[in-house]
Amino acid sequence: MWRELSIAAISVLTLAGFDHPPSDAAIGAGNPYPVSDYKCEDGTRLTVRLLGDHASVSINGATAIDLPAMGPDGTTYSNGQQTMTIVQGHLSWSVGRAVPSACIGG
After folding, report:
1. Is the residue at 11 inside a domain?
2. Total domain count, the chain
3. How far from the centroid of its chain's Cα atoms is residue 56's Cα?
4. Is 63 inside a domain boundary?
């Protein structure tokens, strides 16, 4: 009887020592503002993080800039020079008065 109990105890301790991978539910749990990458028709590469009242945008790998949300719907972000617009899930990018360039990715 003691032998069976010892084997059971060793089995439990061995299983408890294994490192279990995190469940799928934990993926992304530590990052409430995920980063999305886009490539625009004009060749511009954007790395975007939407943060509610503003967006953090890296242009072609440069240091990120903050673009404040414009208007109540939060789909246009602009600092007056660079503008990013999201309409029905489609992102566009423009600089100055240039025609906006459609971007794909996400």
Report:
1. no
2. 1
3. 11
4. yes
Burial class (CB in 10 A: 0-12, 13-18, 19+), 69: middle
Q: Can you tell me the distance from the alpha carbon of 22 to that of 59, in angstroms, rounded to the nearest whole number? A: 33
Reported as a single tens digit per residue, the pLDDT across 40-59 is 999 999 999 999 899 999 99
The per-residue pLDDT for range 83-102, each reduced to its tens digit, is: 999 998 899 999 999 999 99
Amino acid occupying residue 99: V
Residue 97 lies in a domain: yes
> What HEC string does the chain produce?
CHHHHHHHHHHHHHHHHCCCCCCHHHCCCCCCCCCEEEEECCCCEEEEEECCCEEEEEECCCCCEEEEEECCCCCEEECCCEEEEEECCEEEEEECCCCCEEEEEC
What's the residue count for the chain?
Answer: 106
**Tokens encoding 35:** 């980063």
Predicted TM-score (pTM) above 0.85: no
